[in-house]
Design a protein that fits this description.
The complex is a heterodimer of chains A (251) and B (261). In chain A, helix 3 (105-115) runs parallel beside helix 5 (150-162). Chain A is globular. By secondary structure, chain A is of the alpha/beta class. Chain A has helices at residues 51-58, 83-87, 105-115, 121-134, 150-162, 180-195, 207-213, 231-236, 241-250, and strands spanning 13-22, 25-35, 40-44, 66-71, 74-75, 90-93, 168-172, 199-203, 216-221, 224-229. Chain A contains nine helices and ten strands. Chain B has one domain: MetI-like fold (Orthogonal Bundle). The two termini of chain B are 44 Å apart. Classes of the chains: A alpha/beta (251), B mainly alpha (261). The interface between A and B is medium-sized, with 27 and 20 residues. Bound molecules: adenosine-5'-triphosphate (ATP) and magnesium ion (MG). Residues 51-52, 172-173 of chain A line the site of magnesium ion.
Chain lengths: 251, 261
């Protein structure tokens, strides 16, 4: 197994001509996409357009059918590549939080640090506490996920990903499963992350977030990227009919 | 009459019938025969303390040994059944279907002969040990299906979350998937454990030495020796002493777990 170091000057995420089939159903039809280091790219589009599939291909939770995916210059589809090591540098936040229900919050944040980063217990706990404080949940380290609200669980999930000290973060509709009054806390945490310079790819229905925080906005429909550009431009002056139709429904 | 009153009358009638039936049975029962046959003091005293030091002890020992090994085999089978490799899935399915389709008694009997013959090896415990191999392979088949269902019941997102943190497949299984799967299967696994306790009584078919008897064989032997049925009542009580606390414990665990969810 080759431990490939991130290439200097390479884009954080670079996707070239990505195709993905489920059986005979083509879900991604040749997608070219990139995120530069320090950038926040938001992906919007109707349900079933392939947003999650694209995002999940980036850390190979989905197997691409063809095309190339480079993460910090490393081709993650290369059979020689240490996939676990690459994944550990890519934080991921799911719509359904996916915290480990049988572990306390602190354990959720430490288990991969210990195992994958080989950190000592003391160091793992210190980093975990720092990140819990960052998401405003320093007092919840001994709680179990079932005893937290959805918004708290999602913030713990973000802290868990951050504890690996990743180079970038992927978010798949992080606020879609939340009650409306809990969305704000999670978005605030993500905003802070963006301000601190984190590289982020965010699939979202939160147009306000995309407009204010995003450096780039990508609109997908039917497995292709229909339109992309500066969020303010795309949201106020969409050029394509499909983008206009979609935005008129959600705005 | 409103609904409540009607229900009271119906319940009252049911209780009356039930009480009458019990009283009727008590009246026609020959209590003297019952006392001399089931509650014979000298017979009860003669069984003590072997009923605990030998019979209960062996029942529990055979159960624990069978359960531990069956669980280990079942775990391997469950993962084979979930394997992406068709050969593994096929082998596991064949094993499970084969041993689920046979009476445990037949498998025990067969193993008692087959193990010493095939491997030129007498397991600890002799024929009883070989018979236990039969219990193990049979229960492994049942428990494999239970474990497979439990592993599949863990949401897919759990494995994905672990993988996205860079955890490898084996460690994900051990620290994330299995602990949750085992919690899910504790109730069905307890049913299998209780069934196993009772099925240790099948080991008698291989023939047991005096120090190898478990509760059932102990009861039968003593019934013959004393020409009295008291040993049967005694072993029934001791079976319950072993099984009831276990089923109660699991019911409690289940309630506690539901609260935690
Ligand atoms: N595991 C799968 N097997 C078969 N088809 C799938 C699978 N996962 C997704 N699809 C299909 O792929 C298409 C794209 O799905 P995807 O989840 O990427 O859409 P999305 O843009 O994220 O939608 P949403 O906003 O609803 O999350 C859909 O038509 C979906 O039905
Ligand atoms: Mg999606």
């Amino acid at each position: 197994m080759t431990t490939v170091e991130p290439e200097r000057g390479a884009r954080a995420i670079e996707v070239r001509d990505l195709h993905k089939y489920y059986g005979s159903h083509e879900v991604l039809k040749g997608v070219d996409f990139h995120v530069d280091a320090g950038q926040v790219v938001c992906v919007i589009g109707p349900s079933g357009s392939g947003k999650s599939t694209l995002l999940r291909c980036v850390n190979r939770l989905e197997e691409p059918t063809s095309g190339r995916i480079l993460v910090e210059g490393i081709d993650i589809c290369d059979p020689e590549v240490d996939l676990a090591a690459v994944r550990s540098r890519i934080g991921m936040v799911f719509q359904q939080f996916n915290l480990f229900p049988h572990m306390s919050v602190l354990k959720n944040l430490c288990v991969a640090q210990r195992r994958v980063r080989k950190r000592s217990q003391d160091e793992a706990v210190r980093i975990a506490r720092d990140n819990l404080a960052k998401v405003g949940l320093a007092d919840k380290e001994n709680a179990y996920p079932a005893h937290l609200s959805g918004g708290q669980q999602q913030r713990v999930a973000i802290a868990r990903a951050l504890s690996m000290e990743p180079d970038m973060m992927l978010f798949d509709e992080p606020t879609s499963a939340l009650d409306p009054e809990l969305v704000g806390d999670v978005l605030a945490v993500m905003r802070t992350l963006a301000t601190d310079g984190m590289t982020m790819m965010v699939v979202t229905h939160e147009m306000g977030f995309a407009r204010e925080v995003g450096d780039n906005l990508v609109f997908m429909d039917g497995g292709v990227i229909v339109e992309e550009g500066d969020p303010v431009d795309v949201l106020s002056h969409p050029r394509h009919a499909r983008t206009q139709a979609f935005l008129s429904k959600v705005l | 009459m409103n609904r409540t009153q009607r229900r009271r009358v119906r319940d009252g009638a049911l209780y009356a019938v039930l009480t009458l039936a019990l009283v009727g049975a008590a009246v026609v029962t020959d209590w003297e025969a019952v006392t001399t046959n089931f509650l014979d003091g000298p017979t009860w005293r003669a069984m003590w303390p072997e009923i605990v030091t030998v019979a209960v002890w062996n029942t529990v020992t055979y159960t624990v040994i069978s359960f531990v090994f069956a669980f280990a085999v079942a775990l391997v089978l469950a993962f084979m059944k979930l394997s992406p490799l068709a050969v593994y899935r096929w082998l596991a399915t064949a094993y499970i279907e084969f041993f689920r389709g046979l009476p445990a008694l037949v498998v025990i009997f067969f193993m008692a002969f087959a193990v010493p013959l095939a491997f030129h090896w007498i397991p600890p415990g002799g024929l009883v040990g070989a018979g236990i191999v039969g219990l193990i392979v049979t229960y492994a088949a049942y428990m494999a299906e239970t474990l497979r269902a439990g592993i599949q019941a863990v949401p897919k997102g759990q494995r994905e979350a672990a993988q996205s943190l860079g955890m490898n497949g084996a460690w994900t299984t051990v620290s994330v998937i299995l602990p949750q799967a085992i919690r899910i299967v504790i109730p069905p696994l307890t049913n299998e454990l209780v069934a196993l306790i009772k099925d240790t009584s099948l080991l008698f078919v291989v023939g047991m030495q005096a120090d190898q008897v478990e509760l059932s064989a102990f009861g039968q032997n003593n019934t013959v020796t004393f020409a009295n049925a008291s040993p049967l009542l005694a072993i029934a009580l001791f079976y319950l002493v072993v099984t009831l606390p276990m089923t109660r414990l699991v019911a409690w665990l289940e309630r506690r777990q539901q609260r935690a969810r």
